[in-house]
Amino acid sequence: MKITIKTEPSREYQVILDSLQKAVTQALERKRRLGQYAVVWRDGGPVMIDEGIRKSYQSTDQVTIQVAQL
Question: How far is Cα 7 from Cα 53, in angstroms, rounded to an integer?
């Protein structure tokens, strides 16, 4: 059985998450502009963003960062 407890991150963790969000978004945008591929995690597995997907990618797409709490 998997139990998930959803809580709001502390201010410190929120700053870290915001920084990671910004860095990942910038990296993906740079790869898009340079015509490079990227590997992202979608629907439970890795997915390579190639030429077909790259055309539909927008820099405004939401990038999800999940943090496991130990």
Answer: 33
